[in-house]
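Supplementary Methods, section 5.1.

A reviewer requested that the exact input to the structure prediction be made available. We therefore reproduce it here, unchanged from the version used in the analyses.
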Amino acid sequence: MKRIAVVSGKGGVGKSTITSSLGYLLSKRMKVAAVDCDVDTPNLAFFFGLGEDDFEKKVVSTSETAKIDYAKCTGCGKCKDVCLFSAIEWKDRPIVNRFLCEGCGRCALVCPEGAIRIERVRNGWIGRAEGRFPLFGGQMKMGEAGSGTVIFELRKMADEGAEKAGAELLLIDAPAGIGCATIAALRGADFVIGVAEPSPSSLADLKRVLQIVKHFRIPYGLVINKGSLNREWRDKIVEFAKEDGMAILGELPYDRAFVDSLVQMKTVVEYKEELRGPFEKIITALAL
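The structure derived from this sequence is encoded token-by-token as follows.
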């Protein structure tokens, strides 16, 4: 099974739009699966008319936090004194701020009454939905940390599920940026599609995310989205691609249909057939 990841340095450049339309077209000629690795703000499922309730979910726990048993607590304050993360506040008694607590366990070690225990946190869920093809995704709870670990578990589920379904291709919609979440999404990728829009921030962030791709020695190419929006910066992206030796796989125009299709919960190639041509060129360049 081949794995192709779609990445960008910044959000909003069209990763999910491109992933969904490539998946739709490729599913007509081969067995495809896809995974939305943006567990903080997932939206790939919307392009296929799917919502959270359509997923068969599995709860994930990737971090820990301190819990205080106030029946045992004497209010000595030792837990607050040793907390390295200022996660224990004092309001007549110690209160754990779950957004700051790292679950390190120092407070539990010094508590003379054994009133503090370290518990696993339910960070969110990962799961699978059935549409045109198997779609894997997940979502973090508000304010929870550990997206990189959640994505690692999600990728394991997607890899195993796609293999079991006999998929020939797994499309990976990676989260924007250069952090651990993106690194976890890229694990095991055979090829990376970098996406950029004609703007200075997009080009700068593309250069940064490609440093990660190069570090892991993954072959890559470029898709320019909204190319007709700003010709000057579009040409600068083309110039950068030439200097980098990066193949330009295709270019997509700026078109209101990209927004309207998502409102209708459809891929853009379903919504407007005239846009299939540019996506078919990308598929041809990928030799799929």
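The two ends are 12 Å apart (CA to CA). These observations are discussed further in the main text.
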